[in-house]
Structure formats: C-alpha cells, structure tokens
C-alpha cells in the first residue's frame, strides 16, 4: 500500500495570518501541485481526457502506463527542442 498524506495549503484569516513556516510549507505544496497538475492538464487537453475505458485492471494499468510514456516522450522532445545542448 502507498501511504499518502493529504496535502492542502493552509489558509490565513484576517485575525490570524499565516506564520512564516506556514507560508514556506504552502510554497512547497504549491510547487508539487503545480507540477502534477501540468501533467494531468496535458493529458486532458492533448490526449482526450483522463477517462480510462477498459475492462479489467491489467488493461487499465497498461493504458495509464502508455499514457505516461506518451507524456514523457512529448516532454523529452520539448526539452530537446528548447535546449539542444542537453543532447550531448
């Protein structure tokens, strides 16, 4: 089992603003959320959504793996196109 902690940014209020530690924690959480949301946004916009329409867990896992592979390949081509010196 994977252990997942709920990571939600804390909210400040007029009478109780966020401390520096809370602001720092929120920034870390926001960076992670931004990275993850970009991946799902790409899948939804470019690859016709996030719905997995398969019968069976094995096919669903294969579908997710192939979708991730396509994302990684497209991201690789973007990086190489923008920074060709990374190619070696």
TrEMBL record:
GO biological process, one term: DNA transposition
Superkingdom of origin: Bacteria
Transposase IS4-like domain ranges (all copies): 8-73
GO MF annotation: an example: DNA binding
UniProt-recorded name of the protein: Transposase IS4-like domain-containing protein
Species of the source: Phocaeicola dorei CL02T12C06
């Amino acid at each position: 089992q994977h252990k997942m902690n709920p990571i939600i940014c804390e909210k400040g209020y007029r009478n109780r603003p966020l401390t520096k530690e809370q602001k720092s924690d929120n920034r870390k959480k926001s960076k992670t959320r931004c990275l993850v949301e970009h991946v799902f946004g790409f899948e939804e916009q470019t690859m016709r959504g996030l719905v997995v329409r398969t019968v069976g867990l094995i096919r669903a896992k294969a579908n997710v793996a192939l979708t991730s592979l396509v994302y990684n390949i497209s991201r690789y081509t973007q990086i190489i196109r923008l920074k060709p010196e990374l190619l070696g």
